[in-house]
Amino acid sequence: MTELTELVIEGGNTLTGEIEIGGAKNSVVALMPAAILGNKVLIEKVPNISDVTNLKLILNYLGVKVTEENDNFLLDMSNIENKPFEEAQVSKLRASYYFMGAFLARFGKCEIYHPGGCVIGERPIDIHLNGFRKLGADIIEEDNKYTIIADKLEGANITLKFPSVGGTINIMIAATTAEGITVINNVAMEPEIDNVIELLNSMGAKIKREDHSIIIEGTKELHEGRVRVIPDRIEAGTYIIAGVLAGEKLKINNVNANHLTALMDILKEIGADIEIHDNYVIASKTEKLLPISVVAEPYPGFPTDLQQPLTTLLTTASGTSYITETIYENRFKNVEYLNQMGADIKQINDKQIMIQGPTNLTGSKVVSTDLRAGACLVIAGLIGNGITRISSIEHIIRGYEHLTDKLTKINANIKIV
Ligand code: EPU
After folding, report:
1. Pick from 196, 228, 260: which residue ends a domain?
2. Which of 59, 100, 118, 343 is catalytic?
3. Contact 296, 326 (CB under 8 A)
4. Residue 3 pLDDT more than 90?
């Protein structure tokens, strides 16, 4: 395929002014499928990202009417149909797997394909499927297709072998209408999950979190609901890191710093100039940063989704830093391109990289191999000397709304060509 669009960044500008964080990608992509359990649902603060566009197309295909007013989406399920999904729709994004749980809860049946998403590891969905089986579903797997059927869903005691974000949400959605009580243990603790609980409970579900468990009292009576998408902690973290690299009192608005404790702790430890306020953070370029060892792990640990943007920051720290990735098998594809730009990063093994700093980055022609690798290269381009050209930007627009507009507004020199 010919490369049609590139991001072109001229590095070296000071980032200043204010930037507004949108609703969380990993929340909204679960909220939109979960909404189909009700009849009318209002979702506020929906981010303008291509994952949302693709979900909207799937909802339209199912007969759901989506009315948009600014960043509020009203979903009307009056004419929803139980239809098999098409492979092309589902393979566009990871979160299409949430239709499995939602269809099971609403129709007791789902015919769907394996989800798409960033190629950053194997990403099986066995935890989701085992959970559905425990609730009473039968699953036929053929090639890439799943046919999941449950004449009746019954509450169960389910312990996840790993606190999977998608698995936790998907099983919880399915269990919403199951008969009796479901207890899911060893669940993921990410705040996006609580956002989904908030929506489902507003629709009449009876779900509560107790530490590492989620307890669901099944109910068939779901009605209308509403929810506001929480601020995107990964988008916020990315711009906070950009502020520490190139900001002058860069104000990042609509941030819930409580969701970013692990990042804030690390930034403080390396000496970054950040001020944390109730709803915003101010970040400024810091001349001398200390090196650090960081482990990306499930929430509330340091998020894997910020590991690649943090790598760019650590190329400027004085000394040897380490990043250990424990969630995915293949999330260091950004390293090759950072090194091409002048970084000194060695991959020690599948799980760990060593970053020797400080190094100066120089603009280069690089590839956004996945969403957060793209974000890492965008901020590298912002501090790189000269021009950086990033291709495969479709990955970046899956998760960063109005990227060029937001960055231009804070004085970056960036455009899509
Ligand atoms: N895993 C299994 N079996 C499963 C599910 C997961 O082995 O059934 C493994 C995965 O292979 C992976 C690990 O468990 O190694 C974590 O996967 P998890 O299920 O927690 O992740 P996910 O639901 O596929 C969501 C986000 C990711 C984010 C992770 C971790 C969505 C749509 N995606 O993925 O977001 O990295 O949680 O926080 O919510 C991103 O935004 O860049 C992104 C990749």
Report:
1. 228
2. 118
3. yes
4. no
